[in-house]
Each structure stands twice: as structure tokens, then as C-alpha cells.
Amino acid sequence: MAATHRPDLDSRERIEYFVDRFYERLLADEQLAPIFVDVAQIDLDVHLPHIKDYWCKLLLGERGYQRHTMNIHRQLHGKRSLHRGDFERWLAYFTHTVDEHFAGERAERAKRVAAAIAANMENSLS
After folding, report:
1. pTM, to two decimals
2. Fold for domain 12-125?
């Protein structure tokens, strides 16, 4: 997507594009990748559609996501403690990926929501 005119995160297709780019970064990171690959042992073919549905619910009001996010992360935290640095790094990748590809009201909302999610997870799991 061109850097001169960045679209908003205002459609399922754009959110799916964002999630794919975001996870490329997460899974290339030597601190975060082991959490997803070794500890959570995610299957991307199963995991990514859930994440895409989650963000479509938050940004577009779609009803596809029905899971309890905090319980999933509590189970993960029981296997490997999640720390402030993990959440900060996750949020930095999220923000950078949004800013690189998107601009607009929903893009800004996504960053605010992600910051709140990271803070809530950190506080709840500490």
C-alpha cells in the first residue's frame, strides 16, 4: 500500500491485511515468536482467522468473535509468564504496523484499543 495515501482500517479486507502483516512481525521477533510458536503452539491457519474476527468485532462491530480473550491469555501465562516487556513489544509492533499501512479514525481507534488491551492484560496477569 502506498505511503502517500494510507487507507483506514475500515473493512474486513484491510483488517485481514493488517493482521497478516502484524503477525509476520511478531513471528520474526526473537522475544515474541517463542511465545506463539513454542509455548502457545499456535496453528496459524486456526489462530489468524480468530484474530481477524476479533479485530473486525472491535473495529467494525461484526459478531464473529465469541471467545474469552483474557482466559486464553491466563492459560498461556500459566505456561510462561508474560511480562511488561512482552506487552510493550507487542504494542510497538501493532502501532508500527498500523502507522505503516493505515491512517484514519479506525486506525487511530485500533491503536487506542490495542494500548488498552496491552495494559489490561499486563495488569490482570501480574
Report:
1. 0.88
2. Globin-like (1.10.490)
